[in-house]
Amino acid sequence: MLNIKQIQYFAACAKTGSFSQAAELLFTTQSNVSKVIRSMEDDMRTQLFVRHAKGIELTLEGERAYIHVQRILENIDELEMQAQPLAKSNLCVCFHPSSWFADTFVTYYEAHKCDDLHYQVYAADTHEIIKRVKARQDDMGFAYVMQNQLAAFQYFLSRNYLEFELLTETEVNIYTGKGKADEGDFNMSQLRLIQRFPDEFSPDNYRNLVEENGHSAVEAETVVVTNSDYIVERLLGSGELCNISGADLSGRDPGYSSVKYTFPGEGQKLVYGCICRRGEELSEQGKDFLGFVKERLQISGK
């Protein structure tokens, strides 16, 4: 009868096409690998590999055996997983970088730190959020999009078997360092910006953002792009750069930043919501967290 050692050595040789490389994977010697394979061939009364100067290759019988070996190893992996203790409950979420969301998650964690939960919290741009939720890497994603892009955004989600639950809407502001907001009128084309993601469905797509004098936000120069909320806050606090983002979701410390300008009009607002897989019910942990986010939005009047 074959043993598990023979099966594992055979799989390593078939994968690498070399006794020496298989030996490296198995932390043993080439001669030992060759010896085990020879014993397996003797037990099966067939030749599994053709040996030549450049390495080894499976014979026809070896290819047939490899199909069965792969199944055996997969079943062994499943048995080992079954023998492990039950995994802890997980909550996996992704989100647009936001101090407000970070504060919300920290508050949630503090309230549930005694629960038997593990967390995965991932900051990403819109397309990465969609990709992660669709691929089941995360239970849900939290994103914001310009109101005038919402219809196209929802259509894009539907084609990816996802849906968007609108949670709140907010105005779009230009932020500047504290003490710089009252320096008089500003020229949009002279603004130097620090922004997060210049992707299709995000507030950093400013093709349709227009201020009262008819100037578009695309006239401003974006000199720094970063998905780090900390870098945004620190460079914003320096007073040289400005930032365009939501009025209610930034969580900025008013000690170093203030509103320089608010874009007018209903169509120039941001909508903020949750992306989930269409037709699927959230886990209990997911439902609880989404409910907590909604409560925080209500408490803060957003």
Description:
With 302 residues, the chain is an alpha/beta fold. 39% of the residues lie in helices and 24% in strands. It is built from 9 helices and 12 strands. It has helices spanning 4-16, 19-26, 30-44, 60-83, 99-112, 126-134, 150-159, 229-237, 284-299; strands at 49-52, 55-58, 89-95, 117-123, 140-146, 162-170, 172-177, 192-195, 221-225, 243-246, 257-262, 270-277. The protein has a 5-stranded mixed β-sheet, sandwiched between helices. Strand 3, helix 5 and strand 4 form a beta-alpha-beta unit. Helix 1 packs across helix 3 (30-44), helix 1 crosses helix 4 (60-83) and helix 2 (19-26) crosses helix 3. The longest helix is centred in the N-terminal third of the chain and has 24 residues, at 60-83. It is elongated and about 90 Å long. 30% of the residues are buried.
